[in-house]
Amino acid sequence: MTDGRREAAGAAWGALSALFFGDEMHDRFHDAAEACGVPHPGALKAMLNLDPAEPRSMRMVAEDLRCDASYVTSLVDDLERLGYVERRVSPSDRRVKLVHLTPEGEAAKARAHDSLSTPPKALDRLSDAEIRSLARIAAKLT
Amino acid sequence: MTDGRREAAGAAWGALSALFFGDEMHDRFHDAAEACGVPHPGALKAMLNLDPAEPRSMRMVAEDLRCDASYVTSLVDDLERLGYVERRVSPSDRRVKLVHLTPEGEAAKARAHDSLSTPPKALDRLSDAEIRSLARIAAKLT
DNA sequence: TATTGTTATACTCTATAACTATA
DNA sequence: TATAGTTATAGAGTATAACAATA
User: Fold this and answer.
1) Which residues of A touch B9 (CB under 8 A)?
2) How far is the CA of A58 from the C1' of C7 (A)?
3) Which domain CATH number covers B34?
């Protein structure tokens, strides 16, 4: 039983991967970066991880992105120049800078998010019941 | 009805996107590049698009990757140095070079593919029936 | 003349190392 | 002394422009 399960899981994931690594998603990712006015995908990912309610320190952003802290400096410079983000010194530790998403940044993030979360055309091939079933299953995954 | 359908599709896709853009997949993609001995993700994607039965021209590879033709030159140089790929002049047009995947290249591609298609741990949360259902639906998408 | 691929070159993205300020 | 962030610098990844060979 565990064996058939593993096989089904592999097949499911393989099919989904093909969709995500396909041309449509590749294009959409670049469209999203352009739509929110951000120069490169790295900056886009940084934006998507930011939440106005919970500002993150430069170092935390570096960990989110798995990149060097020095690169976060230039990334946040770019976002600040666009008015999407603000650096504020942390009240509890004056070495720490917290990256706050501005209202403009929030709007840009929403635009990018919309563009990315629009499902690819392949989903049109599913019946209504299948779509609902997929939504229910996917919800359990997060 | 079309409205509820769209909503369900958006929810499903959003949840799946979160998985794909999450840390586990990010790490796995780099692991796959390393496992197949390829220097950077661009070269990995080039490999994954190559099929020994249907060699592609340099220009086609550039279109697959949406990058400049000159970059394909250096990409294929790297892969050729690794023994994963061979350039052969096309019999029908001597300007064209066809990129053939070698047996070593095919093996490396398979290793990368295995690593990428291993489902993330989140799928453990699904029941056997849900996994099978997901596999059936995903198969319709490709 | 138009097209395929390469070379030479330059620009962008990202990391390493040395530095400043605060703890 | 150790840690957060920045600066200066160097390296990888990718594009643009000019070129050679073939069509």
Assistant:
1) 119, 123, 131, 135
2) 41
3) 1.10.10.10
Residue A116 to chain B, least CA–CA distance (Å): 8
In A10-134 the beta strands, taken as DSSP E runs, fall at 56-57, 85-89, 97-101
Tell whether the model's pLDDT for residue A132 goes beyond 70: yes
User: What's the domain range around A88?
Assistant: 3-141
- Express as a percent the part of chain B with pLDDT over 90: 65
Q: List the nucleotides on chain D closer than 7 A to a protein CB.
A: 3-8, 12-18, 21-23
The number of domains in chain A is 1
The alpha carbon of residue B105 is apart from the nearest alpha carbon of chain A, in Å, by: 20
Query: Are B18 and A142 within 8 A, CB to CB?
Result: yes
For residue A54, what are the contacts with CB-CB under 8 A and spacing of at least 6?
none
> Is-contact A19 B140, C-beta < 8 A?
no
pLDDT, tens only, B56-83:
999 999 999 999 999 999 999 999 999 9
